[in-house]
Amino acid sequence: MNRYPHSTRLLVAIDCIIFGFGGEEIKLLVIKRNFEPERGKWSLMGGFVNEEEDLEVGAERILFELTGLNNIYVEQLQTFGKVNRDPVERTISVVFFALINIHNHDEESVRVHNAAWISLKNRPALIFDHEKMVEIALERLRYKAALHPIGFELLPEKFTIPQLQKLYEAIYDMKLDRRNFSRKILSTGLLVDTGEKNENSATKKATLYRLDKERYESKFHAFWYFMPDL
Amino acid sequence: MNRYPHSTRLLVAIDCIIFGFGGEEIKLLVIKRNFEPERGKWSLMGGFVNEEEDLEVGAERILFELTGLNNIYVEQLQTFGKVNRDPVERTISVVFFALINIHNHDEESVRVHNAAWISLKNRPALIFDHEKMVEIALERLRYKAALHPIGFELLPEKFTIPQLQKLYEAIYDMKLDRRNFSRKILSTGLLVDTGEKNENSATKKATLYRLDKERYESKFHAFWYFMPDL
DNA sequence: TTATTGTTGTGTCGTAATGACACATTCATT
DNA sequence: AATGAATGTGTCATTACGACACAACAATAA
Known about the structure:
The structure is a homodimer of 230-residue chains.
Chain A: E1 9-21, E2 26-32, E3 42-43, E4 45-48, H1 55-67, E5 73-80, E6 91-99, H2 107-112, E7 115-119, H3 130-147, H4 161-172, H5 178-187, E8 191-197, E9 207-211, H6 213-219
The structure holds a DNA duplex (30 and 30 nucleotides).
């Protein structure tokens, strides 16, 4: 079979938005560019799509390269293709966003890539249209976390309800009522009491829960209404 | 500035999923391919991205070419990039989905392109991975219509509540309670009584409503919980 | 040992939303 | 005038939700 004769071929890149949770606020893993243009500026981690590589595989390759992590939560966000979005040459960028437990990443990889966890809320300027990408990713995160239990992807295996609440408060940048939150979360039946307590606390030690994986998987696509007034 | 030297360039296509509503069921506007491979099979309407054209502009161009319509509801669905998805040559496809009033399209354009409205539910096989695209688009439609008032995009300017209900029943392939549906829809305040009645009815003529555009735009991003148990 | 302080866990109460369901109205047909 | 099919509106019991108060716990200080 002969190839399509007409039509121009374009550069296709993958950019990754990597969210983490520091306990108080949502963080973004970005790299400091060490090449022109925009050398020294902050940028999302990215790369070009290899010739014989599926998009999702490319995203996982890039995520692994920076974090040393496999099997993390990744989903395709959107594709950005404005003609002049990359000043060097027209490049279509397929953007993915990932949620990781911030304590699990490989620090050596991060150092090698000149990467850093920055505050999402008070983030510095990013290159090109990466700013817009992050905006849309945050929207998606808020949207999704209000309806599906994806927040857990940002927490360690064992976590307390107050920690979980802090996470949701960070995502939506709002205060939540402790009692109503707890009631709602527990009513999902997704949490299993481990019997252990959070020993790091200086006051009353909160119970550590873990996710009921089976219930999580089977109920993932059901709708929850976690947030009061989105 | 010099261009990126490394990295291969790929074909980038746009495919469009076009939904319409026939009064009883959801329809899909597809074309019969008149070239190889897969000549004679059903396919989504698509095209390649032009060198100096934004993705959204390309989508609108392709949609206009087939339907003769401008300013319709379009949103980016997802990008499909499996290595072998197109047997001819690797092609990345950015997929958009559009909602139109089925009675507004230009019939001449449809004839020229060998296009036809087919039933979504009992659809024939589609080429390549277009089947998967439609599946995901339907999921998105269901997801979105449960939370945002996008259903109206599929109806004529003036419509009755029973028509609207039929639409939702078609989208979700389920029966809904007349009284509860009506209550819920009216409580949104999005509908304005035109004072007219549906004269096509052989029994009691239902009141024709129109959308309160201002309220629609301002409340579009709010969450509704239209559907009972998704 | 006891009091203090900050945090966690659980319960109540009134209101609003929801699903299940029944009855009256309208209009063409007979 | 009666019939039948579809539309419009109302009720009721249950549940979910937001606002709020109090008891239990653990480290620290007195």
